[in-house]
Amino acid sequence: MLLSIIIPAFNAEPYLKSLLNRLKGQLNDKVEIIVIDDGSKVPVKVPSGIILERQENKGAAAARNKGIDIAKGEYISFIDADDMVREDYIPKILEAIKDKPDYIYLSWETFGGGWDCKVKLKSVSDKFPPFNLCCWSRIYRRDMIGKVRFNEKKAVAEDAQFIREVKEEGKKKAFIPDSIYFYRTDNKNSLTKQMSKGLLDMKRIVYYFPTVTKDMEWLIEEAKKENETAEVIVMTNRNDLPKLREYAMVIPPQQIKGTELRGQSTSLYKKIPQPIKTQVVIYIKNAHDIGGVETWIYNFCMQMYKLYDIMVIYDDHFGTKQIERLAPFVMIHKNMGRQILCDTLLNMRITDAIPENINAKEIIQVCHTCQMKENYKIQKEYDKIVFVSKAAAESFESQVGKKYKVVPNMTYPKDEKKILKLVSATRLTYEKGEDRIYKMAAGLKENNIPFIWMIFADRPLKKKIDGIIEMPQTLELKSFIKDADYLVQLSDIEAFCYSIVEALELNTPVITTPIKVLSELGFKDGKNGYTIPFNLSKVDYNKIYNNIPKFVYKYDNDKIVKQWQKLLGDSKPTGTYQSNSETTTMKIRIIEDYGDVELGRNVTAGEVLVMRTPRAQTIIAAGKAEVYI
Asked: Which of residues 131 and 92 earns the better pLDDT score?
């Protein structure tokens, strides 16, 4: 075998088909064409007589290396899958090979528009322009390549490094004066176009020194190290270190783009914008504060963030609270148009078009809805579609057929923090400590303690605080106090405090300021609650949250009754007003006309009625009647 032509191909249709049709007519038994399918989304097909090898997507360098390893030809040629060659490409090369050169330079030109260039060689001493370090412009004898291979760590300029390491100097050279290779300039997905837009995960380090002197040998070592993963270019008017060319492209100062400038500053340099890179992007145009899709995003991120680098991208709105709970685990970005590179894009809504600046190797459309009367249309730009249920999938089968996956929604079970339940009953007069309410609520939030604080008051609070529920006044507070973790009392002073005593009787601990009456009420700090300073400084909120006291409290009402009996003296109650039984009755006389709901009629002054005792006492208290004796 005289010549092996190696063509790396990644999503190169329809260009590859045209190229192979051009080459197939030139094939003979001295030539083999090897196409390496570098993990194309649609598997490459080739005409008979052409060798096809497949691999997972590893890049052009890995594809060319695989081609070199299996090639049988005495000479090696490289063609990019989106380029074109002349009808006599192979015959011209075979003719040049007859003189047994070590390598052959090819004349070439661009096509497709946008950039016009023509490199026509006229003699064996001609050299290519400085930046024409492209492997497709050279044909190498196989034994000249030896063990040299393309650097698979580089996204660009791997062929420039390959050419330097093959070492053309001092070898026998041939050239072809007619343009037989055509470089395409209208492919939007070409590496050159992607690099200029900042779409490639690449490094181009540009050094600028007016003069590279002999005492700058450190530059050789630095360039050697960077050359392992980056394209290295040195701009200088004079280079006194010939060895530097083994690891860097050395060129005169000129306009140039790069990812990093070193050495001296220069206006000739322009930075290539670098993309944001991650493994998984979750895209949602607009996220509601509460919703099923938003819950899916949270649960997915919390289950998967240890397995993948995840980035959530949104365009219009994403709830602040949702951002706060996701931010410690994944990156969240408002889409500002910067290029984003990822392995997988998860599009959250079938109605959202994917932004052009998000570039993914694979797009998965996640469908969270069933087909409804709106006749939803699923975007066509996905590689895979995932439905969250079989019911959802079946409703869309007329659009997607049977090519889908069903993956149920995941949950994120975790030990959620207990909600701290607080209750206060206050008139909110000046001495009741309204400002302390706000300060304590802020302290709980700062310590990430979730709470619900029901405040029963005679007027609204001056500030609206998340977690605080304003309740209307009621005489029936005991049920709320009994269910609470703490009763909160933040007054400046109290002569007595019914709410504290009621709480303690119900075995509900109390958080209170150090009012003087506490000891008289039987309150003991740390046993049946906690005192906190009037200025709320150095409050241990976590202690309050994690160590809710349990106790048994006894208030001696019998003793107090006896004290009052001594003050009031002996008595002989008649029982006239003291029965609340629903079975006892009272006789009353109406003194003012009113509409009686229970009787279902209007009553008039002077009427004498017999009523249930509690009902009669209510009407008397309202001033509508008097006891009839």
From this structure: 92
User: Considering only 184-198, 216-230, 448-462, which range has the smallest mean pLDDT?
Assistant: 184-198
- Are 3-187 and 420-546 the same fold in CATH? no
Rounded Cα–Cα distance for residues 485 and 509 (Å): 7
Q: Cβ neighbours of residue 475 under 8 Å, at least 6 residues apart?
A: none
* Strand boundaries in 30-152, DSSP class E: 31-38, 51-55, 75-78, 84-85, 103-111, 118-119, 138-141
In this predicted model, what pLDDT tens digit does every residue of 242-271 receive, in sequence order? 999 999 999 999 999 998 999 999 999 998
Sequence spans of domains, the chain: 3-187, 203-271, 276-406, 420-546, 585-627
User: CB neighbours of 23 closer than 8 A, spacing ≥ 6?
Assistant: 5, 33, 50, 85, 89, 90
Paired tokens of 58:
């590893």
Q: Find the radius of gyration of the CA atoms of the chain.
A: 42
DSSP state of 432: G
pTM over 0.70: no
CATH assignment, 3-187: 3.90.550.10
Torsions phi, psi for 223 (to 5 deg): -65, -40
Three-state secondary structure string covering 222-265: HHHHHCCCCEEEEECCEECCHHHHHCCEEECCCCEEECEEEECC
| Residue 353: DSSP 8-state | P
What is the spatial distance between Cα 264 and Cα 207, in angstroms, rounded to a whole number? 8
Q: Which fold has domain 420-546?
A: Rossmann fold (3.40.50)
CATH 1.20.120 holds for 203-271 = no
Q: Which residue has the higher pLDDT, 432 or 311?
A: 311
Residues 6+ apart with CB under 8 A from 622: none
Q: Which helix (H) or strand (E) holds 270?
A: strand 269-271
Alpha-carbon torsion angle 396, 400, 406, 407, nearest 10: -100
The string of pLDDT tens digits covering residues 516-574 is 999 999 999 999 999 999 999 999 999 999 999 999 998 888 888 888 888 888 877 76
Could you say which DSSP state residue 59 is in?
A: -
When the pLDDT of each residue in the chain is averaged and rounded to a whole number, the result is: 90
Q: Name the token pair of 229.
A: 């993963």
Residue 209 three-state SS = coil
3-state secondary structure of 8: strand
* Burial call 78-109: b when 16+ CB within 10 Å, e when fewer: bbbbbbbbbeebbebbbebbeeebbbbbbbbe
pLDDT tens sequence across 377-424: 887 788 999 999 999 999 998 888 888 999 999 888 876 789 999 999
Rounded to whole angstroms, what are the CA distances from 532 to 488, 563, 593? Answer: 10, 33, 55
The CATH architecture to which 276-406 belongs is 3-Layer(aba) Sandwich (3.40)
Helix (H) or strand (E) holding 405: strand 405-406
Residue with tokens 């490409």: 89
| DSSP tag of 274 | P
Write out the two tokens for 257. Answer: 């783009």
